[in-house]
Each structure stands twice: as C-alpha cells, then as structure tokens.
Amino acid sequence: MVNHELDGQVAIVTGGARGIGAAIVRALTGAGATAVIAGGRDTDGKALAGELGDRAAYERHDVGCEQSWDTLLERTTEQFGPPTILVNNAGIYRPGADVTDTTPENFDEHYRVNQRGTFLGMRTAAAAMKDSGGGVIVNISSIASHRPYPNQIAYSTTKWAVRGMTKCAAVELGAHNIRVNSVHPGFIDTTMLDAITDEWNAQVIAATPLGRRGLAEEVAATVLFLVSPAGGFITGAEFVVDGGLAS
Ligand code: NAD
C-alpha cells in the first residue's frame, strides 16, 4: 500500500490562496497535514483557511522579502510547530516581449518572486528543518525550464534557475534528512494563463499529446506524492506534469 499520510506534518505553501497553490493546500491538509497558506491575496487566502478550519491558517507574505520569511517562520511555528514541508509555489508570469524588448524592470520582477523567493524560502525553511531533524521541499518550476518558448525570457530564466537551485540544495541537504525536488507543470488551467493569446492556447493544446490543459489538482497530486513517505527515496529529481507537451 502506498503511504501518502501526512499526519503531524506542518506545511508552508507559498501563493497558496488560489490556483495550483490552493489545490496543493487541499491535497496536503486532506492527507493529514496542517498548512500555512502564505501570500498576498487576503480574501482568497482567508476564505480557504476558513473552509479548512483548524487544519490551516492564512498569513500575509511576500516571498521576495527576507524579513517576511522570518515572520512567516515565527507565525508558523507559534501556530502549528516548525515546518516540515515547504512548497515554493508562488510565481508570476508576465510574458509578451522578446529579448530586445524585455525591460530590465520586467526581468527583475520575475527574478524577485520566482527565483529570489524560492531561494529565500529554501534558506529559511531548511534552517528550521535542520534543527528539527528533517523535512521536504518542493519547488514549482515549469516546462519553460525544459524547452524555450518565445517572448518569455524573464520567466523562463527564473524557472531554469529554480530547476538548478533544487539540485544544489538537494545535494547539500540530503545529509540533514531534507529532500528537495522540483515539479514542472505544462499548461495548467489557472488564471495565470489569462496572459496567453487564444491562438497560442489552441496551438499548445494541439501540441499536447493528451489534448487538453492540465488541472491544478493533477499538479497537487504529484506534490503530495513527493512530500509523503511514498516519495521517501526521491531527492534532486524533476517531475514533469504536462500531458506530454515537452516530450
Ligand atoms: P496563480 O497566479 O493563480 O498563482 C500564483 C500565486 O503566487 C498567487 O496566489 C499570487 O498571489 C502568488 N504570488 C505572486 N507574487 C507573490 C509574492 N511576491 N509573494 C507571495 N505570493 C505571491 O498561478 P498558478 O498557475 O497557480 O501558478 C502557481 C505556480 O505554478 C507558479 O510558480 C507558476 O509559475 C507555476 N506554473 C504554472 C503554470 C500554469 O500553466 N498555470 C505552468 C507552469 C508553472
């Protein structure tokens, strides 16, 4: 029997108020964990926490800010205990310009949330996990880290970085009983994809062997597997959830 039980585990899910993050929060709490929904979407975050009762709490959080991570760690530990699971899910996707037209501001914005945010999250949570005997980190990258797409150099760069940082952290943290893996969604049906044109959406679906966008729940199921005892011997690995698009 495959063991997905998370009783007694304490999770932080960044960007957990909606989309893929909310599906991850539901999957982890459904398996027995308590979860902190961390992000800047107060209405959605509080509503999800309310729905999940004493299994979850919402905390306002900015992944790009070091101080915000210190506060989040403190609040998580006070409410539920030290974190044993971190899912670095928060991300932004603001494509549309080629390499010559991408502004340095657009580049920096993506860096701050997707790359620096993931680094700060691992840095903060892994320190706490080292002290408490171990843990699991999952970083949400993208298939944009496996193949190039036009007009999104800023986004893609950060997702390649997430892929690399995951492997660096995995080799350093294994000795501390901390596993670190990355998940690479393809085109998943969330509001993030409102940024793409209808024409591109149709092309992507036509190029996807399974012929559709994925569901947030299908990404969450992979995260649940990775953080659970079923994934206990997996670290430094990449899990593509894309309906075959990148193959
Ligand atoms: P989404 O826009 O619904 O979720 C992103 C979340 O990140 C939001 O809750 C947002 O408030 C939060 N966020 C943004 N900046 C933040 C900050 N500074 N601090 C804290 N939280 C912040 O989109 P989604 O599709 O659910 O995306 C989740 C993750 O999956 C992202 O990392 C995204 O890059 C990745 N991804 C999504 C797709 C897709 O097709 N939807 C594909 C590949 C990868």
TrEMBL record:
<dbReference type="InterPro" id="IPR036291">
    <property type="entry name" value="NAD(P)-bd_dom_sf"/>
</dbReference>
<protein>
    <submittedName>
        <fullName>3-alpha-hydroxysteroid dehydrogenase</fullName>
    </submittedName>
</protein>
<dbReference type="Pfam" id="PF13561">
    <property type="entry name" value="adh_short_C2"/>
</dbReference>
<dbReference type="GO" id="GO:0016491">
    <property type="term" value="F:oxidoreductase activity"/>
</dbReference>
<dbReference type="InterPro" id="IPR020904">
    <property type="entry name" value="Sc_DH/Rdtase_CS"/>
</dbReference>
<dbReference type="InterPro" id="IPR002347">
    <property type="entry name" value="SDR_fam"/>
</dbReference>
<keyword id="KW-0560">Oxidoreductase</keyword>
<comment type="similarity">
    <text>Belongs to the short-chain dehydrogenases/reductases (SDR) family.</text>
</comment>
